[in-house]
Each structure stands twice: as structure tokens, then as C-alpha cells.
Design goal:
Shape: globular
Strand order of the largest sheet: 4-7-6-5-1-8
Order of helices and strands: EEEHEHEEEHEH
Distance between the termini: 24 Å
CATH superfamily: ph1033 like domains
Radius of gyration: 14 Å
Length: 142
């Protein structure tokens, strides 16, 4: 089981979060020639992986989690005007803002369109939100 973060701000300002939720998908807005590495990473996502829609506030150094879901079909398909993606059962949506410490920010990937999440604190928070365990309130971020 992996945990992945994905951005939904196409072109940096067109937020597609509602479209991801209503179409039960997580997609890359770039085509394969523009972003071959992102498509390669998308192909690594499997059924039962967790994925969260995120944005990053540079000014406040905060990671914002907008939705959390579980991948239920890892066949990569064209999802209309959203691009290629996987099918997701969205389990939680809202807004959870996480302050990013200097240590977390030092070598961050939070601005990337898609990445595998390795920080245990954020992995735990994503799982708590997905499982609706206290809305993630009991998870301490260091």
C-alpha cells in the first residue's frame, strides 16, 4: 500500500478538485510528451493505494489536503478533459491545513503534481482522514 499526493490545479490556477470528486478519478493534466515522468509514476499506482488531493501554500508553508481516497481501479484511462488517470473512491473531502516545518520543507516535493508520500506524519493523517478517525485531529505533526 502506498500513499500518493496529487495536485488538481491545472495551469496553476484552475482547480479541478470538484471534477476529480464527481468523476471518481485522480488525473494528470499534462499529456505524456509534456510530462513523461508523471505518467511513469501514475503507472506505479495500484488498487488499494491511498491518494490525496493537495495544494501547497508557499507563503504560509502549509500543505492543504482537500480530499482522500482509495484507488479502486488502476487501469490508466482518459478521463475526458481531465487527462489520464485512475479510478478513486473518495472517502473524505474538506480542508486540512498542515504547517510544514523547516525540516519537512527542506527537501520537499509538495509542489510536484504527483508524488509518493513518505513522511510518516502525513501518511498517518491521510489514513485517519480516509478511515474517518477523529478527522485526523489526534495526529501530531512534528
Amino acid at each position: 500500500m502506498g500513499v500518493y499526493g496529487i495536485g488538481a490545479a491545472y495551469g496553476g490556477h484552475r482547480d479541478k478538485t470538484k471534477e476529480f470528486l464527481s468523476n471518481q478519478c485522480a488525473c494528470i493534466g499534462w499529456n505524456e510528451t509534456e510530462a513523461p515522468s508523471l505518467h511513469k509514476m501514475l503507472s506505479k499506482i495500484r488498487i488499494s493505494d491511498f491518494i490525496y488531493i493537495k495544494s501547497m501554500s508557499i507563503s504560509t508553508k502549509s500543505l492543504i489536503i482537500k480530499a482522500v481516497g482509495i484507488v479502486v481501479d488502476d487501469n490508466i484511462e482518459e478521463k475526458g478533459n481531465l487527462g489520464k488517470g485512475v479510478t478513486v473512491d473518495w472517502l473524505w473531502n474538506g480542508k486540512k491545513e498542515i504547517p510544514i516545518t523547516a525540516e519537512m520543507y527542506k527537501n520537499n516535493v509538495f509542489n510536484n503534481t504527483l508524488y509518493e508520500e513518505y513522511l510518516p506524519e502525513i501518511q498517518r493523517l491521510v489514513l485517519c482522514l480516509a478511515l474517518k478517525k477523529g478527522n485526523g485531529k489526534h495526529v501530531e505533526l512534528v
